[in-house]
Specification:
This protein has about 260 residues and is an all-alpha fold. The chain contains nine helices and no strands. The longest helix has 27 residues.
Length: about 260
């Protein structure tokens, strides 16, 4: 993949990250992500174009609103930078392929869901369902263009299987999972199932390992107990991103190590 294409994906990631900040702030409040335009969360002043440049405006304004002087959350530049970085890595992973748009939509949706989950312990349907629809459409186009119907079938099977598994767990142990996690599992199954069932398994294993590590660390520090709620959606997102980029090497290492 050319340097220009990779840089373009990075710039696209910055722009998408700026939009994701609007999504993260407004969707949980039931507000439109289209109107009104971007505004200060504190004083509601509509931002001028030069105050709404991804990452750069936050730096030039020193993290404060030009109108009221209130601090602007570090989440805004962090999410923009993270989205740009993840877009670049995803582009390098998939190259200029038919499936790249679907995977970029997937990671964008994941980052928005993780940010909301970290702030509010919530995985809104208004983010999950549109992301699922865009990813499904993108993979359908990729399957048609590349005659990869087998991959699409595996992806659909993984989506249904993941949803069913998490649904059963949530039904039997509702304290373990929220239904948002069930919906998110279907999204992970679809996008990662395109890469194979083992990639999806790596994602779930990585998510649970990360969740267990964070939980144990918080309990050891006296900041949580065994009944403390944790943002499992954020752990699923981290596991999915790990599997998306490093799933294939992980599977190859496992096969080489344990089949000698």
């Amino acid at each position: 993949m050319s340097v220009v294409a990779v840089a373009g994906c990075g710039l696209l990631g910055l722009a998408v990250g700026s939009f994701l900040n609007v999504v993260v702030h407004r969707v949980p409040l039931g507000l439109s992500v289209v109107r009104p335009g971007s505004s200060c969360p504190s004083c509601a002043t509509v931002l001028r174009p030069w105050d709404n440049i991804p990452l750069l405006s936050w730096i030039l304004l020193r993290g404060r609103c030009r109108a009221c002087g209130m601090p602007i959350s570090l989440r805004y530049p962090a999410l923009e930078a993270l989205t740009a970085a993840v877009f670049v890595v995803t582009a390098l992973r998939f190259g200029l392929s038919w499936s790249l748009p679907a995977q970029l939509a997937f990671v964008a949706g994941l980052l928005a869901l993780a940010a909301v989950d970290l702030e509010r312990y919530l995985l809104p349907r208004a983010i999950v369902y549109p992301t699922l629809g865009i990813v499904a459409t993108g993979l359908l186009v990729a399957a048609f263009a590349g005659h990869q119907w087998g991959r699409l079938g595996v992806a659909a099977f993984c989506a249904i299987g993941s949803f069913a598994l998490f649904f059963i767990i949530q039904f039997v142990r509702p304290r373990w999972l929220g239904f948002g996690d069930v919906r998110l599992a279907a999204l992970l199954g679809l996008a990662l199932g395109w890469l194979g069932g083992w990639t999806l398994l790596v994602a779930f294993m990585a998510a649970n390992l990360l969740g267990a590590t964070v939980g144990i660390a918080l309990m050891a520090a006296g900041r949580a107990s065994r009944t403390t709620a944790l943002p499992y959606g954020a752990f699923l997102t981290a596991g999915a991103l790990f599997a998306l980029v490093w799933g294939a090497p992980t599977i190859a290492w496992y096969s080489h190590t344990f089949r000698r």
